[in-house]
Design goal:
490 residues, 18 strands, 44% helix, nine-stranded mixed β-sheet, binds zinc ion, three-stranded antiparallel β-sheet, single chain, elongated, 14 helices, alpha/beta
């Protein structure tokens, strides 16, 4: 036991240093293993994370590439869409016989020369242009309307204190349905709406003097017949209130002119209830009905305001102050009404419509010079201040200021109106066309497309409208006879 103990003691004694070394070795080995394990773990995790990062990176790159490709595709699509819009716009221009304008629009498209669709269209327009022929501007018809009847069931059936109006309405008014049928038939017969200015070439010399010459270059396809259109008394007069007509012209949500109309139950609706939006609708559906986007002429008086706005200063007066409309129709802040009318005027101009004087008080311009002068001055003060200047005059009652011979410089009224800037003078004439062009002015007869004219054609063989349309298929069968049959002698 002692030996053993001694041995073990000796061993113990002997291995103290050894033990220390061994322990160090073991620790070293342990440390090494731990380091190896750590390194291994690092490698393993590193690899895992590395691979994951690479995968992630690749995915991100893929997504990025896909997004870039989609964006590029969208850009290409956008360009193609924009291009198609421009091509469609050029097509509308070409349908209005403005082939040069259409070609210019197409040539403004970037890289158009490399696009077969576009070069094909250009060639098509060039070919169409060669087929145009000049129109004789002295054979251009001018048709006119008054406010369209929006609800004939009201207008033709007025009773009591309003019944007296039926005969007048029946003579001089046209219903929306009749108007649309007339436009369709004229379109079918090759008529094309032109601007009255298209009849002439206007030049201004160094001193600012204007002179006219016949336009030898009003070009339309063979067989097409140009015509001018106007509408008289676009005032929505007080007396027409509730009789089945629109209330006023307004600017629609699309920025285009349209009407406001109060239905019989009192609800106010917006839409095509008179000439302006009805014609606009027709031209939008048939762009080849309008030469270079031409629209009509709106002839305005002033005494009830313009376009349905009560813009005349007299309408701001009370009944006591002498405003005979005040009791029935109210008193208006005419300045506020002018501000409301101005954007409508602008929308109409932007849409291609022209304005004309129709006198301030709807008086005959065949009256004495002093009477005409007073009225013409009032028109400048109270209507031109709302709609801007114009050089077109549409005579009330169609009464001209001279005979069919050329205006003489000795004609005082002519001199005065010329001094106010008027150059286009329109009377009423039942002939299909009547045009007088001199160096100083343009004069044109207009034919009324209303109940009276249609009735005379249908029942009395007047035969004034048959070139334009077939009155028998247009005439509203619900029209009464009041005002029509007692005009048979005319
Ligand atoms: Zn009138």
């Amino acid at each position: 036991m002692g030996d053993e103990r001694g041995k073990s003691t000796g061993q113990r004694q002997l291995s103290k240093a050894q033990l220390e070394r061994r322990r160090k070795r073991r620790r070293k080995a342990y440390m090494m293993r731990a380091a190896c394990v750590a390194a291994l773990l690092l490698i393993i995790f590193g690899t895992i994370f590395g691979v994951r990062a690479v995968i992630k990176n690749k995915e991100a790159k893929k997504q990025e590439e896909a997004a870039a490709a989609a964006a590029q595709e969208a850009e290409v699509q956008k360009e193609a869409d924009a291009e198609n819009v421009l091509i469609a716009q050029a097509e509308v221009t070409a349908m209005g016989y403005d082939y040069d304008g259409a070609i210019q629009q197409l040539q403004a498209i970037p890289d158009y020369a490399g696009n077969a669709t576009i070069t094909g269209k250009i060639a098509e327009y060039e070919a169409a242009k060669t087929k145009l022929v000049p129109v004789d501007v002295e054979t251009v018809s001018h048709v006119f309307f008054h406010t369209l009847v929006a609800d004939p069931s009201i207008t033709w059936n007025l009773t009591g204190a309003n019944e007296y109006k039926i005969a007048d309405y029946n003579q001089v008014m046209t219903t929306i349905d009749e108007f649309n049928k007339i436009m369709q038939q004229m379109y079918d017969r090759g008529y094309v709406l032109v601007n009255i200015r298209d009849l002439v070439v206007e030049t201004t010399d160094a001193d600012g003097n204007i002179s006219f010459a016949k336009n030898e270059n009003l070009m339309l396809p063979e067989g097409k017949k140009p015509f001018v259109l106007s509408q008289d008394d676009v005032s929505y007069y007080f007396y027409m209130t509730g009789d089945g007509y629109a209330d006023k012209l307004i600017v629609g949500e699309d920025g285009k002119p349209t009407n406001e109309y109060t239905q019989q139950d009192g609800t106010v609706v917006t839409g095509s209830y008179d000439v302006v939006p009805c014609l606009d609708d027709f031209i939008e559906a048939h762009p080849d009905f309008s030469y270079k986007g031409a629209k009509g002429i709106l002839a305005l008086t002033g005494y009830n305001g313009v376009l349905g706005y009560r813009t005349d200063p007299d309408l701001a007066k009370t009944a006591e102050e002498g405003n005979k409309n005040a009791t029935e129709y109210g008193v208006f802040d005419y300045q506020a009404e002018i501000e409301k009318a101005k954007p409508v005027v602008q929308a109409l101009k932007d849409d291609g419509w022209e304005f004309a004087s129709h006198s301030y008080g709807h008086i005959s311009y065949g009256s004495s010079f002093d009477k005409v002068k007073t009225d013409a001055d009032k028109w400048q003060e109270r209507v031109a201040n709302v709609i801007g200047p114009t050089d077109i005059i549409i005579y009330p009652f169609g009464t001209d200021i001279g005979s069919w011979t050329e205006y003489e410089d000795t004609n005082e009224t002519y001199q005065y109106l010329k001094g106010q800037g008027f150059r286009f003078f329109c009377n009423v004439d039942s002939n299909l066309y009547w045009v007088q062009i001199t160096q100083d002015y343009v004069r044109q007869g207009r034919i009324n497309l209303d109940g009276y004219r249609m009735y005379q054609d249908i029942h009395n063989g007047a035969n004034k409208l048959t070139e334009l349309f077939d009155p028998a298929t247009v005439f509203d069968p619900n029209r009464p006879t009041a005002g029509l049959d007692d005009w048979d002698d005319k």
